[in-house]
Every structure is written in structure tokens, then in C-alpha cells.
Specification:
The longest helix has 25 residues. The protein starts with a strand and ends with a helix. It contains five helices and twelve strands. The model has no long low-confidence stretch (mean pLDDT about 95). By secondary structure, it is of the alpha+beta class. The strands form three sheets. Strands 10-1-2-11-12 form a five-stranded antiparallel beta sheet, with helices on one face. Strands 5-6-7-8-9 form a five-stranded antiparallel beta sheet, with helices on one face. It has a single domain, classed as Aminohydrolase, N-terminal nucleophile (Ntn) domain (Glutamine Phosphoribosylpyrophosphate, subunit 1, domain 1). The radius of gyration is 18 Å and the shape is globular.
């Protein structure tokens, strides 16, 4: 399983994903789940994936093939699409097409459960608005709004409470990074199917480029100190509450 979260704020986009993929307790591996596509100053697109690895990897590979195609057009390439909504349509259609093909192979082998996958899509093109979408396995999607400025996929329930309490559209990028990291920390502590290293990406508004990208390893001193400080703060707050 996995946990990915995206924030769309007045100041920019903040995105975080884990990298753990497991098919049972004795089959755990690390796979990147954050993919960045960038033409600095013109457009930047981030895709975060959760679910069946064969679906998500094939979807990303086909999207890259469409980008590299000499005959690519605004209808086939996410790097030529006129709007982020058009990008969401391309990604959604590709995800649904790949998932359907894999479902047919499952059915042929007697497995009618099918494959599940979803993605977060975020980015901005020059002259357009920053946008953040959650795209479902069927290819349909929802979008982050001013009232709901964050979206999650994967094992999201453990990391949602802190986001509900501290994230607003006016939240600074610094506080947003802190919020998503603490959201991930809560998930790491409660679910063994989510694991490090982590990928963190920040895209400042109207820059149309990746402003910050960071791979956070399990031994990262800053993340460990933040996790411990959060645990101490929670324990202190708990002790101060009276019944």
C-alpha cells in the first residue's frame, strides 16, 4: 500500500509520497511513486500514484511515450495539453485504459477482483492556474478547492486529522511542509504498509518549475527530530487536558 498527499495553497503546491510497495509481510520493496514532468517556466506536472504497481507503472510509461512521440499533440501529450484540466483528462483516460486491460488479464486467469489504482495530479502551465486533482481507477476525477485544499490517496485515514486541523489555503509553504511530514509520520507509526524513504516536492505559484525536491531517508536527522518533537508535544498536551 502507500500514502500520498497533495496540498494546493495560495502560495503553491506541496506534495509528499512514501515509497513502500508490499505483497505480503515477506515481500517488501521500494518503488518511486512521485513522477515529475517539467519544462521550466512553461509548465510543471507532478503525478503521485497508489494501488496496483503494474497499472501505475504502465500508465506512467505510456504517458512518457506520448510525450516523446514526434507526432504528439495537445490531445495526446500532457506536456502539450492546453490546460491542466486537459492534462487530467489525458491521465484519467490512460489510467482507465491500462487498468481495464489488466483487469481483462486478471479475469482470463480466473481472478475477478480486478486491479485498483489512483493518482494525484498537480501542476501549472504558464498563464494558467495551479490545480490539484485526484483521479480514480475509472478515469474520473475530483479537484481540490479553496474549501478543501488537500487531497490524499492510499492509506490516508491516519494522516488526515492533522491536515483537517492545520491546513488552510492561506497556510505558508513552510508550515505546509511541516503538516504533510507530520501527516506522514502519523501514518508511518500506524500502518506497516507505508514506509520510507519519502519524496517531498514543492512548486511555488506561477514559477512553473519544481522549487524544491527532497528524498527523505529513514536515517534523516531532521525528520526524526520533528517526529520526536511532535510526539512530545502531543504527550504534553494530553497531560494538560482536564476531564
Amino acid at each position: 500500500m502507500t500514502y500520498c498527499v497533495g496540498l494546493r495553497l495560495d502560495a503553491g503546491l506541496v506534495l509528499l509520497s512514501d515509497t513502500r510497495t508490499n505483497a505480503g509481510l515477506d515481500n517488501i520493496a521500494v518503488y518511486r511513486k512521485m513522477y515529475l514532468f517539467e519544462e521550466p517556466g512553461e509548465r510543471v506536472i507532478a503525478i503521485l500514484s497508489a494501488g496496483n504497481l503494474s497499472v501505475t507503472q504502465t500508465t506512467i510509461a505510456r504517458l512518457q511515450e506520448a510525450i516523446d512521440d514526434p507526432d504528439a499533440s495537445e490531445h495526446t501529450s500532457i506536456m502539450k495539453a492546453e490546460t491542466m484540466l486537459d492534462v487530467a483528462e489525458i491521465v484519467g483516460s490512460m489510467l482507465a485504459e491500462v487498468r481495464q486491460g489488466i483487469d481483462e488479464k486478471f479475469a482470463a486467469s480466473g481472478d475477478d477482483q480486478g486491479a485498483s489504482a489512483s493518482v494525484l495530479l498537480a501542476g501549472q502551465r504558464r498563464g494558467g492556474d495551479m490545480r490539484l486533482f485526484l483521479i480514480y481507477r475509472e478515469g474520473n476525477f475530483i479537484e481540490a478547492t479553496e474549501d478543501t485544499p488537500f487531497l490524499q490517496i492510499g492509506e490516508h485515514k491516519y494522516g488526515k486529522p492533522i491536515l483537517d486541523r492545520v491546513v488552510y489555503r492561506e497556510t505558508s509553504l513552510l508550515d505546509a511542509k511541516k503538516a504533510v511530514l507530520l501527516s506522514m509520520d502519523s501514518t508511518l507509526r500506524s500502518n506497516l504498509s507505508v514506509g520510507m524513504p519519502l519524496d517531498l516536492c514543492v512548486i511555488e505559484r506561477d514559477t512553473c518549475r519544481v522549487s524544491e525536491y527532497r528524498r527523505i531517508e529513514a536515517r534523516d536527522a531532521q525528520f526524526r527530530a520533528m517526529s520526536e518533537a511532535w510526539s512530545n508535544a502531543l504527550r504534553e498536551a494530553f497531560q494538560k487536558i482536564e476531564l
